[in-house]
């Protein structure tokens, strides 16, 4: 039985402590030889061995590419909740290079001598199942509940989850007996026996038992990787099994892959020359021979037919079996353990049928080609923070750009930086602090670069720096038909115009180049004002902001009355400079807008305002949103905003200053055309219909345009609000050229010109 697994080759190294650096050097030899995996046996009661866990961490720090694993870790002497946190930590520190080889224990006299509890074979299986549940429960950091596993041998009662590993750590179980094999088929990721303990026919019988249990659990048997520990010697003359020249090894290992489904070969050797021969001569030849045999037999790669944890959860309209192998490796579908971490947005719940996570522009092009062959919606996500929630969906495909997270300084003299679309602005701010630079970028560090820098970017440095899109000087994109294009003032200039304001409609942006501003420390102010005279406060605050120096940018959040208390306005304000006297002078008029209830101000780098956030999105709330732009907060506008906030129809009402430098840019310079606006108003509600009615009858009558990221109204007229007049006509022509099939239709879809 060939399961189609890609072939992996590794070493099984003795963790001897006579010369403690030898096992580490052998790990380095394994990596240098081009092999994939380093494993160490785990016998904590053996005084002649290094502690395996300590050795794994040291070896991980001494290598850069190979995966590391215990072979197998002794669960009776390693408390599973602590082991889970240790494993997640090592996986994070090594960049996703840890695998969990786990055993139920076998040498019980030695285990008891170290304080472990002797178990019967049946109890050992139960204990291993409990340990596996605890491991995966701790790693599920995105789940909000505490972990409770009331086991008979291993238990946790209200343990906090986390940290989340860098990747989905596979759990391989060392096992031989039927009950343990059934546990592997139902719940584990791999079977890891040693060839020397197997009798004739045991591989076939074990595979059959695992396959049957996997199918009973609703899994594809190819989800379970088959690994094998092997002894042998590469030598000139032929002898017994794996005792001979490289060509004998090639034939015998290929037979195990094709006939018995072995996908991972782990060779026990402490001889560096044997390891080099394995990596340089044997492994490449085995891969070549197996690939040739599979081509003749028509064997599909396991990654191309990856089964969901429950096949019944797959969605109609998606051909999962046709998913290209390069994408399948990291794709996530309903039922996968990592699904909950990628299905939602910041505030929007989602249940996509498939999340694709490409790592290169070539994989983005492959993902787009695949998505267009499916009969489901497509959403593109940079970091998933957008309030409008259009980067997830129900039943469709999400193209997640989180792997495009690089941040590079290209030119110190011009302050030019390249940002991956999946990077977050908190990470960007943190990276630029040592240079004394900053780029205006919303008010929250978890916002993705790609979403903000293609929409507009109303941020807390905005009156000084303009919009985020005003700092974009080039973009690298993948078009719907798979072309790789660069857009700038001199390369594809019309596309460059459209990307700055309507980028989500035109292509997948993988990276952008921006010019940062020369901004050192800033003064960050937080005020609370009594908003009993709500209309008057809004007018005074608006006047004060417009009269302030451009270094000052302020956002206002208005909350309605609660529990007998009057309404309160919260101000977040940045003065872009460390001159505290100038900052106080600029802030005082804001404090005079209403009775001051509290004020705190700090001098800090911009990264302290827009802080790095690495939390996973869990959805929830699913708010309805409306937004609009105005030139001034005059009496009429202020009254309508106040009435909406106090009516209860909007539970969150915010006004962002967006004038100053943003007004200096001509309206036709970018696809974001609302250059006369000084303020952006947004409101959130639990009901789209009720909010639409209240907004349209209130502040919506006085606004001119809207801000895409905060509006969830899907009526066609919103597109005309976002892109007025000739801007929309120009975008429709661009749409016809770059996306005539309307592939990018999730975010305020622009119809291609006729």
TrEMBL record:
<dbReference type="InterPro" id="IPR016169">
    <property type="entry name" value="FAD-bd_PCMH_sub2"/>
</dbReference>
<dbReference type="InterPro" id="IPR036318">
    <property type="entry name" value="FAD-bd_PCMH-like_sf"/>
</dbReference>
<dbReference type="InterPro" id="IPR016166">
    <property type="entry name" value="FAD-bd_PCMH"/>
</dbReference>
<dbReference type="InterPro" id="IPR011251">
    <property type="entry name" value="Luciferase-like_dom"/>
</dbReference>
<feature type="domain" description="FAD-binding PCMH-type">
    <location>
        <begin position="348"/>
        <end position="519"/>
    </location>
</feature>
<dbReference type="InterPro" id="IPR016167">
    <property type="entry name" value="FAD-bd_PCMH_sub1"/>
</dbReference>
<dbReference type="Pfam" id="PF00296">
    <property type="entry name" value="Bac_luciferase"/>
</dbReference>
<keyword id="KW-0285">Flavoprotein</keyword>
<dbReference type="Pfam" id="PF01565">
    <property type="entry name" value="FAD_binding_4"/>
</dbReference>
<comment type="similarity">
    <text>Belongs to the oxygen-dependent FAD-linked oxidoreductase family.</text>
</comment>
<dbReference type="InterPro" id="IPR006094">
    <property type="entry name" value="Oxid_FAD_bind_N"/>
</dbReference>
<dbReference type="InterPro" id="IPR012951">
    <property type="entry name" value="BBE"/>
</dbReference>
<keyword id="KW-0560">Oxidoreductase</keyword>
<dbReference type="InterPro" id="IPR050416">
    <property type="entry name" value="FAD-linked_Oxidoreductase"/>
</dbReference>
<dbReference type="GO" id="GO:0016705">
    <property type="term" value="F:oxidoreductase activity, acting on paired donors, with incorporation or reduction of molecular oxygen"/>
</dbReference>
<dbReference type="Pfam" id="PF08031">
    <property type="entry name" value="BBE"/>
</dbReference>
<dbReference type="InterPro" id="IPR036661">
    <property type="entry name" value="Luciferase-like_sf"/>
</dbReference>
<dbReference type="GO" id="GO:0071949">
    <property type="term" value="F:FAD binding"/>
</dbReference>
<protein>
    <submittedName>
        <fullName>LLM class flavin-dependent oxidoreductase</fullName>
    </submittedName>
</protein>
<keyword id="KW-0274">FAD</keyword>
């Amino acid at each position: 039985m060939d399961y189609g697994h890609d072939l992996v080759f590794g070493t099984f190294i003795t963790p001897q402590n006579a010369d403690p650096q030898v096992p580490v050097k052998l790990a380095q030899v394994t990596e240098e030889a081009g092999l994939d995996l380093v494993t160490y046996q785990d016998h904590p009661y053996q005084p002649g061995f290094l502690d395996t866990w300590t050795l794994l961490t040291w070896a991980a720090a001494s290598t850069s590419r190979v995966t590391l694993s215990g072979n197998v870790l002794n669960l009776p002497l390693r408390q599973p909740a602590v082991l889970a946190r240790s494993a997640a930590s090592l996986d994070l520190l090594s960049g996703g290079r840890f695998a969990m080889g786990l055993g139920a224990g076998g040498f019980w006299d030695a285990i008891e001598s170290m304080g472990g509890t002797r178990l019967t074979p049946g109890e050992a299986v139960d204990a291993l199942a409990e340990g596996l549940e605890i491991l995966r429960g701790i790693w599920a950091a995105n789940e909000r509940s505490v972990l409770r596993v009331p086991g008979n041998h291993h238990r946790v009662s209200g343990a906090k989850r986390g940290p989340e590993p860098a990747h989905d750590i596979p759990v391989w179980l060392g096992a031989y007996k039927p009950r343990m094999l059934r546990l592997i088929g139902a719940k584990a990721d791999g079977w890891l026996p040693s060839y020397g303990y197997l009798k004739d026919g045991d591989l076939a019988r074990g595979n059959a038992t695992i396959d049957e249990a996997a199918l009973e659990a609703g899994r594809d048997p190819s989800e379970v990787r088959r690994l094998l520990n092997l002894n042998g010697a590469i030598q000139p003359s032929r002898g017994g099994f794996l005792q001979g020249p490289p060509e004998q090894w090639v034939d015998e290992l290929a037979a195990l892959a094709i006939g018995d489904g072995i996908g991972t070969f782990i060779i026990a050797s402490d001889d560096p020359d044997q390891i080099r021969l394995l990596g340089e001569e044997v492994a490449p030849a085995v891969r070549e021979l197996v690939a040739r045999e599979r081509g003749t037999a028509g064997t599909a790669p396991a990654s191309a037919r990856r089964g969901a944890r429950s096949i019944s959860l797959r969605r109609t309209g998606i051909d999962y079996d046709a998913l290209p192998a390069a994408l399948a490796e990291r794709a996530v579908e309903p039922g996968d353990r990592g699904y909950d971490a990628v299905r939602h947005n910041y505030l929007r719940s989602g249940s996509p049928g498939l999340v694709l996570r490409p790592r290169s522009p070539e994989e983005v092009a492959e993902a787009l080609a695949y998505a267009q062959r499916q009969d489901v919606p497509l959403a593109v996500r940079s970091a998933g923070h957008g309030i409008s929630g259009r980067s997830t969906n129900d039943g469709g495909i999400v193209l997640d750009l989180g792997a495009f997270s690089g941040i590079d300084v290209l030119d110190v003299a011009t302050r030019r930086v390249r940002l991956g679309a999946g990077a977050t602005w908190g990470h960007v701010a943190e990276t630029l602090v040592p240079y004394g630079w900053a780029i205006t970028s919303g008010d929250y560090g978890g916002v993705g670069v790609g979403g903000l820098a293609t929409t507009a970017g109303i941020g807390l440095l905005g009156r000084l720096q303009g919009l985020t899109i005003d700092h974009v000087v080039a973009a690298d994109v993948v078009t719907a038909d798979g072309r790789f294009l660069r857009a700038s003032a001199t390369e594809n200039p019309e596309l460059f115009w459209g990307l700055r304001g309507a980028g989500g409609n035109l292509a997948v942006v993988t990276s952008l180049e921006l010019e940062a501003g020369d901004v050192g420390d800033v003064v960050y102010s937080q005020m609370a004002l009594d908003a009993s005279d709500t209309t008057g406060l809004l007018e005074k605050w608006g006047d004060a902001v417009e009269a302030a120096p451009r270094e000052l940018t302020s956002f206002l959040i208005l909350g309605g009355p609660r529990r007998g208390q009057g309404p309160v306005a919260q101000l977040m304000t940045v003065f872009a400079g460390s001159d505290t006297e100038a900052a106080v002078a600029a802030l005082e008029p804001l404090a005079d807008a209403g009775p001051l209830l509290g004020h705190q101000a700090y001098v800090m780098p911009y990264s302290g305002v827009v802080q790095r956030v690495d939390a996973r999105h869990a959805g929830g709330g699913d708010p309805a949103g409306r937004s609009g732009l105005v030139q001034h907060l005059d009496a009429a506008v202020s009254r309508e905003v106040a009435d909406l906030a106090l009516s209860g129809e909007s539970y969150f009402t915010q006004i962002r200053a967006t004038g100053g430098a943003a007004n200096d840019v001509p309206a036709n310079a970018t696809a974001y055309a609302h250059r006369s606006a000084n303020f952006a108003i947004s409101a959130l509600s639990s009901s789209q219909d009720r909010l639409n009615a209240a907004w349209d009858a209130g502040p919506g009558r006085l606004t001119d345009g809207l801000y895409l990221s905060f509006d969830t109204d899907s009526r066609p007229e919103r597109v005309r609000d976002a892109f007025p007049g000739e801007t929309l006509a120009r975008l429709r022509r661009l749409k016809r050229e770059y996306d005539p099939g309307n592939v990018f239709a999730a975010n305020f879809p622009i119809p291609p010109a006729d």
